[in-house]
Automatic annotation (TrEMBL):
Protein name per Swiss-Prot or TrEMBL: Cell division protein
Source species of the chain: Caulobacter segnis
Signal peptide boundaries: none
AAA+ ATPase domain ranges (all copies): 64-212
Keywords: ATP-binding, Cell cycle, Cell division, Nucleotide-binding
GO biological process: cell division
Record GO terms (molecular function): ATP binding; ATP hydrolysis activity
Gene Ontology cellular-component annotations: chromosome
Entries under InterPro entries matching the protein: AAA+_ATPase (IPR003593), ATPase_AAA_core (IPR003959), P-loop_NTPase (IPR027417), Pch2-like (IPR044539)
Recorded superkingdom: Bacteria
SMART domains in UniProt: AAA
Tagged with keyword ATP-binding: yes
Length: 303
């Protein structure tokens, strides 16, 4: 055990972590992601509905599969939201004995012919089914394009037929699990929604695009970051309400949430003097770091 979580080697293949819910740390993640309140509400309601309705209404009436897909650029908070959602859903059903499983897709893909398909089938039909039998279960499928790759875009020379079959296996298993376990919810994420097989997307009960933060959200993320640092360095906390803050927030528009937080770290490393004593960082340092992050991002994009 580390951080109070089970990281045990005994976890079934393909599952990187299993933890009981609720988990306050995941609640903090949910709160830390700045997006429209409406979007969070929609996400949570969809997850809650999964556990209220699916067990009671026939699938011929409402064909819910128990899958939510979050798409969006890297660093927009998808994984954090997915973990936070698991916590908040469990909170909504107090005393529900929920748990969260995290799937590590790369550990399933294998160069050996037939192995990926088998590993995917085993994961869903054994490990996940077993968990679902023991109580309400939420499964995080991060980078789902690895498991449910778009079959129509695969060239059979470049992509082994094994991966093609892995997508087939995911679809077959999702149907089987949806039929058997109403108290099971998958929350999938992808940076490449176009690379996800359309039959997978069609099974999703909600596909939600997590956007880049707008001007207001950028300001909130930057403020959150500075005030967080302010708990250790009060001088940095004060920058959040100093003149010049708005200009920095404006400069963050176009960056994702992760990039904004990393940019602040870069500002703390802008000069050795500041790195030695981070309390000396100024809003000018932050502004320059934001400008540089934007230039680097633009450079990366045009490549
Ligand atoms: N909208 C946001 N508000 C606040 N912080 C954010 C936001 N988006 C991202 N972050 C920060 O960026 C970090 C990375 O977020 P996360 O890993 O959830 O993103 P992701 O969308 O899953 O990225 P990737 O697609 O690369 O896996 C988080 O720790 C969070 O602090
Ligand atoms: Mg992620």
């Amino acid at each position: 055990m580390r951080d109070g979580h089970a990281y045990d080697a005994e976890l079934p293949k393909g599952i990187s972590r299993s933890r009981p819910l609720p988990d306050e740390k995941l609640g903090a993640l949910w709160d830390s992601i700045v997006i429209e309140e409406e979007t969070k509400k929609q996400l949570l309601s969809q997850a809650v509905l999964n556990f209220t309705l699916r067990g009671k209404v026939d699938r011929t009436v409402i064909p819910l599969h128990g899958v939510i897909l979050l798409t969006g650029e890297p660093g927009t908070g998808k994984t954090s939201l997915a973990r936070g959602l698991a916590h908040r859903t469990a909170m909504a059903f107090r005393g529900g004995r929920f748990k969260l499983l995290e799937v590590e897709p790369h550990s399933l893909t294998s160069s050996a012919m037939g192995k990926t398909q088998r590993a995917v089938s085993d994961l869903f039909s054994q490990a996940i089914a077993e968990a679902a039998m023991s109580g309400p279960t939420i499964v995080l499928l991060d980078e789902v394009e690895t498991l449910a790759a778009d079959r129509s875009k695969m060239s059979l020379e470049a992509n082994p037929i094994d991966i093609h079959r892995a997508t087939d296996a995911v679809l077959v298993q999702l149907d089987a699990l949806a039929e058997r376990f109403p108290d099971l919810l998958f929350v999938a994420t992808s940076n490449f929604p176009d690379a996800v097989d359309s039959a997978f997307t069609s099974r999703c009960d909600l596909v939600l695009r997590v956007p880049l933060p707008d001007r207001t959200a950028c300001g909130q993320i930057l403020r959150d970051c500075l005030t967080g640092l302010g708990r250790t360095y009060p001088e940095i906390g004060r920058l959040a309400s100093a003149p010049g803050f708005d200009r920095c927030a404006q400069e963050c528009v176009g960056l994702d949430g992760r990039a904004i937080r990393k940019m602040v770290a870069n500002a703390l490393a802008c000069r050795q003097e500041v790195a030695m004593d981070p309390a000396k960082v100024t809003l000018d340092d932050v502004l320059r770091a934001a400008q540089r992050a934007k230039v680097n991002r633009a450079g990366g994009k045009s490549k």
